[in-house]
Amino acid sequence: MTTIEIRAVHQRFETFEALKGIDLTLDEKRIGIVGSNGSGKSTFARLLNGLLIPTSGQVLVDGLDTAKSGKAVRRKVGFVFQNPDNQIVFPIVEEDVAFGLKGLKLPAAQRGALVEEVLDRYGLGPFRSHPSHTLSGGQKQLLALAGVLITRPDCVVFDEPTTLLDLRNARRVAKVIDEMEETVIVVTHDLPLLESFDRVIVFDQGRVIADDAPNSALARYVERMQ
Ligand SMILES: Nc1ncnc2c1ncn2[C@@H]1O[C@H](COP(=O)(O)OP(=O)(O)OP(=O)(O)O)[C@@H](O)[C@H]1O
């Protein structure tokens, strides 16, 4: 299980301070991140696998500093973007899934078996030879997730995984997240998604204002929004 330590992290974009001193240790299996628009959630999420390096402070993943060991950190922590179109790079579904294995120098048969396994896991098998852009929004989100999971990260960070999806696809993705064996950290406005989580952290104007079990943290968030 992955432990992520966030120590005295500040994030500035020119003169604007998006995160104003964050200290957290993340070691639960399922962690939700909520907060109003612009409160710093996506910025925080991007720090967790070194997509963004803090202006000051440190992010350590199992002791590895994201500023110094980005590549090793990204092998442990995968990231699924809100818009799967940002993540799907190959024209054909199975090629896109296989992309994550590039550089691992696996024999072709083993690579094929791994691709098959993740396609099956997400019901994408029948679409393996289809053009990626013809998948539905929900299927694209699952394809993006498949492309991350094939690299076998210990932890997956999701940035608003259900926001662009209709109710049926949102439920499907939520079920997949619920059943994941990997550690998950989910940024979302979809509060019911977090009810069964271990911990929910509430951001407001670049600070953590609540960090608790889902019921208490979400109640605090709803109260703050009134
Ligand atoms: N690259 C950047 N350059 C300048 N400002 C940025 C950059 N990235 C984020 N910000 C600013 O930092 C603040 C926090 O943005 P962030 O995307 O983390 O918010 P959020 O909580 O994820 O919001 P939302 O719920 O709307 O997605 C915003 O005011 C945003 O404009």
From TrEMBL:
Residues 4-225 form the ABC transporter domain. Its EC number is 3.6.3.-. SMART domains: AAA (SM00382). The keyword ATP-binding applies. GO terms for molecular function: ATP binding; hydrolase activity. It holds the Pfam family ABC_tran. CDD domains: ABC_cobalt_CbiO_domain1. It is an enzyme of class 3 (hydrolase). Keywords: ATP-binding, Hydrolase, Nucleotide-binding, Transport. It comes from the Bacteria. The keyword Cell membrane does not apply. Involved in beta-(1-->2)glucan export. Transmembrane domains (TMD) form a pore in the inner membrane and the ATP-binding domain (NBD) is responsible for energy generation. Belongs to the ABC transporter superfamily. This is Biotin transport system ATP-binding protein.
